[in-house]
Design brief:
This protein is of the alpha+beta class. The chain has 12 helices and 19 strands. The strands form 6 sheets. It has a 6-stranded mixed β-sheet with strand order 7-10-11-12-13-14, with helices on both faces. Strands 16-15-17-19-18 form a 5-stranded mixed β-sheet, with helices on both faces. It has a two-stranded antiparallel sheet with strand order 1-2. The longest helix is centred in the N-terminal third of the chain and has 24 residues. The chain is globular. The N terminus is likely disordered. One of its GO terms (molecular function) is inositol-1,4-bisphosphate 1-phosphatase activity. It catalyses: 1D-myo-inositol 1,3,4-trisphosphate + H2O = 1D-myo-inositol 3,4-bisphosphate + phosphate; 1D-myo-inositol 1,4-bisphosphate + H2O = 1D-myo-inositol 4-phosphate + phosphate. InterPro entries: CysQ/Inositol_MonoPase, Inositol_monoP_metal-BS, Inositol_monophosphatase-like, Inositol_monophosphatase_CS, INPP1_dom_1. Belongs to the inositol monophosphatase superfamily.
């Protein structure tokens, strides 16, 4: 097999200036191209794909990571629209809440809720991205079950239908025949999202999607999404609670290594337009694949004073252990994804969690962004073990491809042992030294 970069040209006429694409030539490829092959080549060239000859002698194309990024960003924007709609329409919002039960209940909260917005957003992302990338269709997973129980006790499997009318009819079953509410949601589900982001035009990364999988957290910090308000004021730039911590998280990882390679964080409630009574969203993304490190964010500036962000119900043991390093600069916030975003934005040096209360869908997307910025997310318990044994480099990071043996439900995908999220290695090392020397053992 020979690998080379060439410049694809139209079959007739002069060569046009094109960016180089990676083309892999297999032995015994056909000497002549059929009209269908020529058409396929042109289509792949226009869409920035990589071509190769398959074992059956047919031309195949790998869409670039850039195309996947665009697809996921568009899906995240649609997700943000649905989340906003469900909060803005009070009548609609009151219909959308049901309590999680059984194995899917997050043990962290006495009342942990699943909303139709959660389920619908998850299914929209699976539908839209899976349609464009069929090879990912069976590898797009999320926090939520798509089975929803309505007020009549009926179990409805939520999905995106082929038409807006069919989706509305399905949603009416969930919403106890509330036609207007169902039609509002169906319109949001089937709307076309057109991204207008010049920065994406400069992104040109080609990575095969065949070995990738996707984690989705439709609305991270569901508790704040349901009960939070938009008028909470930030403390040192960090919102301790409220709608600002409710995020859409999408993470792409390598199915074989478990490493995160692409992440998206969408803030549906980034900024409120008071006059229009609506919210503006904002997204952030990062790609980390081998030596390729790209992000919509720049590396944050170093804080003049050390700062760490913790969960609002973090143990007093951890808080006391970190006090010598951070003193009064212990900040608290809701939502695992939001705290990771605070680190990526430079509002905190690190996010430290001692409990098993986060999951793969919470951390995969933010992890990829942090890696793109030069940081990462390490397993707290495993890292302390090797640190105390004298290994201070290459601490074990979270991976995303293997469930916990013997666990059931959501716990199969918990981040056991806690975590530390960081951008700069010196901040990670400072936390590790402090915790390793703490009187109490973690």
């Amino acid at each position: 097999m020979i690998s080379m970069s060439i410049q694809l040209q139209p079959e007739d006429g002069p060569a046009r200036k094109q960016k180089k694409r990676r083309v892999v030539w297999f032995p015994h490829q056909p000497s002549d191209r059929s009209p269908a092959d020529r058409s396929f080549i042109e289509d792949a060239r226009r869409n920035g794909g990589a071509l190769h000859w398959g074992g059956d002698g047919k031309i195949q194309a790998d869409k670039s990571m850039t195309a996947l990024l665009r697809s996921l960003l568009a899906a995240s924007e649609k997700a943000a629209c649905i989340a906003q709609l469900c909060r803005q329409e009070e009548t609609l919002f009151s219909l959308l809440i049901e309590e999680k039960r059984g194995a899917d209940k997050n043990k962290k909260f006495l009342q942990d809720f699943k909303t139709l917005a959660d389920v619908l957003i998850q299914e929209v992302i699976k539908h839209d991205v899976g349609k464009e990338f069929p090879e990912l269709q069976d590898h797009i997973c999320g926090e939520e079950s798509n089975k929803f129980e309505n007020g009549l006790g009926e179990i409805v499997v939520v999905r995106v239908c082929s038409t807006q009318q069919e989706t509305a009819a399905l949603l009416q079953k969930v919403l106890d025949r509330k036609q207007m509410a169902a039609e509002l949601l169906a319109a949001a589900v089937h709307q076309e999202i057109v991204l207008s982001d010049p920065a994406l035009d400069n992104v040109d990364v080609t990575i095969s999607t065949e070995s990738l999988a996707v984690w989705i957290d439709p609305i991270d910090s569901t508790n704040q999404y349901i009960r939070g308000c938009g008028s909470v004021m930030p403390v040192n730039g960090i919102y301790p609670s409220g709608l600002h911590s409710a995020l859409v998280l999408i993470g792409v990882y390598n199915r074989h290594s478990g490493e995160p390679v692409l992440g998206i964080i969408n803030e549906p409630f980034f900024q409120e337009e008071l006059a229009a009574h609506r919210w503006q969203s904002k997204y952030h993304w990062g790609i980390s694949y081998g030596s390729t490190k790209l992000s919509s964010l720049s590396q944050p500036r170093h804080q003049p004073s050390p700062c760490v962000v913790l969960s609002s119900n973090e143990t007093t043991v951890l808080q006391k252990a970190l006090a010598p390093l951070y003193g009064e600069r212990l900040c608290f916030a809701s939502g695992a994804g939001y705290k990771m975003l605070c680190v990526a934005l430079g509002l905190a040096d690190a996010y430290v969690l001692s409990e098993d209360s986060t999951f793969k869908w919470d951390s995969c997307g933010p992890h990829a962004i942090l890696r793109a910025l030069g940081g990462g997310i390490v397993d707290l318990s495993a890292s302390l073990k090797v640190w105390r044994a004298g290994q201070h480099k290459n601490l074990p990071e979270l991976t995303y491809n293997k469930p916990i043996e013997g666990a059931v439900g959501a716990e199969r995908w918990a981040n056991q042992g806690g975590l530390i999220a960081y951008v700069y290695h010196k901040h990670l090392e400072a936390v590790m030294v402090t915790l390793a020397n703490a009187t109490d053992t973690f």
